[in-house]
Amino acid sequence: MVWLFAVATGLIVANLYYAQTLIGPISRATGLDPGAAGLIVTLTQLGYCLGLLFIVPLGDLVENRRLIFISLVVCALALVAAAVAANPLVFLAAALCIGLGSVAAQIIVPFAAHLARPEERGQTVGKVVSGLLMGIMLARPVASLVADALNWHAIFVLSAVVTIALAFLLRARLPQRQPEGGMHYFQLLGSMWHLLKTTPVLRRRAAYQACMFGAFSLFWTCVSLELTGPNFGISQTGVAIFALAGVAGAIASPIAGRRADQGKSRSTTLIALLLGALAFTAPLLVDAGRLANLAILVCCSIVLDAGVSASLVTGQRAIFSLPADVRSRLNGLYMALFFMGGAIGSSLGGWMFAHHGWHGVLLTGLVFPLVGLAVFTTEPRK
User: Fold this and answer.
1) Superfamily of domain 2-174+195-376
2) Average pLDDT taken over every residue of the chain
3) Each residue of 211-221: pLDDT tens digit?
């Protein structure tokens, strides 16, 4: 069941990232202004944030398997709309709906935590999140390879087919989980504000991950533009090979989960934030020619992805240690808050690249983990 959860979350969340390395061809095909290209990723993440705030909390109220199925059907329809979009407004509306439907992944993660034994919860969540992160990291190279072999429309068609097949598979295989409930939908939403005010660990973990995910989204939104530009002149297949290197960062997830189970969340968080800062500092300080600069970017992508993975798992382990009857709401708030950081990062990245180039992107990206480190200094040691 853990393998099923991991594969499912990876396939679902990949839908958020197929467009990330294709913003150039999508912008040209739909007539989107280059300075607004970051909106392709930003609106997908905004839709995801809205789904996390208004759909994922239903996991504490309605039967989880049915909620997952409906979300995936919505996502598949939005993917079809993106594939046939001929103007920017249609594509951006479809991107928003892809984000809304993809929140099924964040209904599955607390589902896995609910089924796991308390002493193994961090490791279980780490394994499921490894699948989720593999989906994020593999989405970019897969999209680039498919676009090179066919066209950018094809990846959305293929993903729609996979998503609808996954919807029926999960409906057949997942156990039923009917929460106790006890409140109506608007009471449920109202309780989220109370949870945010009264759960300091949620606020702190969301702040760390918002900084890390903002840096992550900014980097991966812009690096394909830099790689295919005049400095490197790499094809979409080359971008795919580059993006595959980032997959190595997913190995940090189970390691971070195990360390969190051992009570080492504080040191794991510090390491994750330092890795994020290092990923942007190295290319700013070193300029040693085309091949050396490319090698540095490959290493930085692995380091950044490892830091983001470790921070995410450590945060979810802390949140899933809280009472089971509020896990879906806590997870929805956590993911929504840090995806807002991601949306800010991707939109800033597109604008910075258009107006200040890659150097401006790196300086902006460095600010995110530095803010996270500043917040970390206020964390009590106990």
Assistant:
1) MFS general substrate transporter like domains (1.20.1250.20)
2) 83
3) 998 998 888 87
